[in-house]
Design brief:
The protein is of the alpha+beta class. It is 28% helix and 22% strand.
């Protein structure tokens, strides 16, 4: 499902990234720093029932695509790293991930 919609998802991501609308600094689930230099920002679209509807309204096509995924895990975000950012070793509560470039 995601592969066939990459252009629409990328367009919405780039629009958000250019303005940093909806982005916040990433913090790991155990509240530890996850970078030792630079900045890692995320724009949550879905996270275990928390309300990110404002972010979702800024990327309606992406939300529609996510909603079409069977057994969607309800954890989706856009991630943006400043240049020269170094992400330290870390893991979340499930260690699940799907990276799209």
């Amino acid at each position: 499902a995601l592969e066939s919609h990459v252009d629409a998802i990328r367009e919405e991501f780039l629009s958000l990234r250019d303005s940093l609308a909806g982005f916040q600094r990433y913090r790991s689930s155990d509240d530890c720093e996850t970078t030792d230099r630079g900045h890692w920002h995320v724009c949550y679209l879905s996270l275990h029932g928390m309300d990110f509807s404002e972010n979702g309204r800024m990327c309606p096509r992406t939300m529609e695509i996510l909603g079409s995924i069977p057994r969607f895990y309800h954890h989706a975000l856009f991630s943006a790293l400043d240049s020269s950012t170094h992400v330290t070793a870390h893991y979340g509560p499930t260690n699940k991930k799907l990276r799209c470039f």
